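Lab notebook, page 48
Experiment: co-folding of the full assembly
Goal: obtain a model of how the components sit together before planning crosslinking
Operator: M.T.
Materials (sequences as entered):
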Amino acid sequence: SQTIHQWPATLVQPVGSPLSLECTVEGTSNPNLYWYRQAAGRGLQLLFYSVGIGQISSEVPQNLSASRPQDRQFILSSKKLLLSDSGFYLCAWSTSGHTEAFFGQGTRLTVV
Amino acid sequence: DAKTTQPNSMESNEEEPVHLPCNHSTISGTDYIHWYRQLPSQGPEYVIHGLTSNVNNRMASLAIAEDRKSSTLILHRATLRDAAVYYCILSAGNQFYFGTGTSLTVIP
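Observation: model returned without errors.
Model output:
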């Protein structure tokens, strides 16, 4: 069966520090991969999606970047965190936009 | 972005049916309609999706209007575990765009 792993579950980082969040998927090949951010009490904002290794589409200009070094690995990064980067970050995968998406358990990032 | 409009909140009595509406007047012919639900501090959970025809699964039913500009998620018998934020989403190509969702409260 397919599973998605996302870590860490919680993270507290100072302003200006770097960030690296990792997401891995098991049990499927060539998945579409997604990074979402959810501000407190808000809906999910699509940040990045990837349809293959090295292929990244950015939805929102921001202080973040994404990379897909392997087929089932998706990394969200920042060189210098801002207070506004705080939020609940979710990784997801699907086989296409026409099938269901599966979400990880999320990382709650607090920038202080 | 594909847009959906949902009521901010709804209430239902336990063991009664719940009809959660969604408007998507700008839907294109190839957009699928998805529904997900989210509990606090958890990732969203898939509920159901469809293109044109009504759909049923073990969790819920999805009724899609003939013009596809609206849809309704039907929970046949609400339980306390169904209390969550429900998101109606249009999938455009490979992307899933979430709106603000409907917070469903189930009253015992």
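Interpretation: The two ends of chain B are 38 Å apart (CA to CA).
Next step: discuss with group before ordering constructs.
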